[in-house]
Design brief:
This protein has 273 residues and is of the alpha+beta class. The chain is 26% helix and 19% strand. It contains 9 helices and 13 strands. The strands form 5 sheets. A 5-stranded mixed beta sheet has the order 3-9-5-12-4. Helix 7 runs antiparallel to helix 8. The two termini are 32 Å apart.
């Protein structure tokens, strides 16, 4: 519920007219809120998240039932798609571009966003998440991972920020890309987390998710995920986050490493218009 109103508002502004959303036994009012939205088709799933390829099995079931051969964006509630600094295009207009004419999948980089001040101040009560958590690391992604795509030896990038926060982590941790825009076909092979896709033509142009993981809700979410134990390796990443917040580290911004997200060179090369 913390992100959903911003999520729906963002994508409605991009011209999205229909949402297929899987709710996994939420207890914070999400189910009731979504049931009131006229453009949401709501599905309730009661199986373990960790046994669903981290949600991909549910996403694939929805796409297979309703979206075969059609472009679909697969996004978590804290992932807001961007491709322009001043957003004027709709998603439909973007996909009509010649860059995507023969493509069946588009790589979307997950840009970890955070506030300049304490996480507790980023409550997103005023304006958009971009207004309160509009910073990212100047070098946001690392390409030195040992990971490769399981289906076609695809390249892989990881989050530099998360390696900064959790120093000493294995360099294949924190994959920060998804093949999240798909013209789905039943023969496609989707990896856990949708980080890789096999048997699909990948577009040469790449897009960005503004990933709003770090905000005032972060401590609560980390505690909840540790208790649930549903994320990768028994929520290993969230256990390390709890250790950080217990030390009182609530400011991620570093004046030597952080920039306004639109000034990050990696981002600027991928923003159009």
């Amino acid at each position: 519920m913390f992100m959903l109103p911003h999520f729906l508002a963002h994508y409605r502004k991009l011209g999205v007219e229909a949402f297929l959303i899987a709710d996994n036994c939420s207890n914070d009012g999400t189910l009731e809120y979504l049931a009131q939205q006229p453009d949401v088709a709501l599905f309730s799933v009661d199986t373990d998240y960790r046994l669903s390829q981290y949600g991909v099995a549910w996403q694939q079931a929805m796409m297979a039932a309703f979206r075969v051969g059609k472009w679909s964006l697969v996004a978590d509630a804290d992932e807001l798609l961007v491709w322009q600094e001043k957003q004027s295009q709709t998603l439909a207009q973007l996909l009509n571009h010649s860059d995507f004419e023969t493509a069946e999948a588009i790589r979307v980089f997950m840009l970890d966003m955070y506030p300049q001040g304490p996480l507790e101040d980023a409550d997103f009560a005023q304006g958009t998440p971009f207004d309160q958590a509009g910073y990212a690391d100047r070098v946001p992604f690392l390409a030195n991972t040992l990971a490769r795509g399981p289906f076609a030896d695809q390249r892989c990038w990881t989050s530099a920020l998360r390696h900064r926060l959790i120093a000493g982590s294995h360099r294949s941790m924190f994959v920060a890309q998804k093949l999240a825009l798909l013209r789905y076909q039943p023969w496609m092979r989707l990896s856990a987390g949708l980080h890789f896709v096999g048997d699909a033509r990948i577009a040469p142009r790449e897009l960005l998710f503004a990933h709003f993981k770090y905000n005032t809700d972060f401590r609560r979410k980390a505690q909840a995920e540790v208790l649930r134990g549903q994320h990768f390796n028994n929520a290993e990443e969230y256990r390390k986050y709890l250790a950080l917040v217990s030390e009182g580290r609530s400011v991620i911004f570093d004046p030597d490493l952080s920039q306004k997200w639109t000034d990050v060179p990696f981002v600027r090369r991928r923003l159009r218009g």
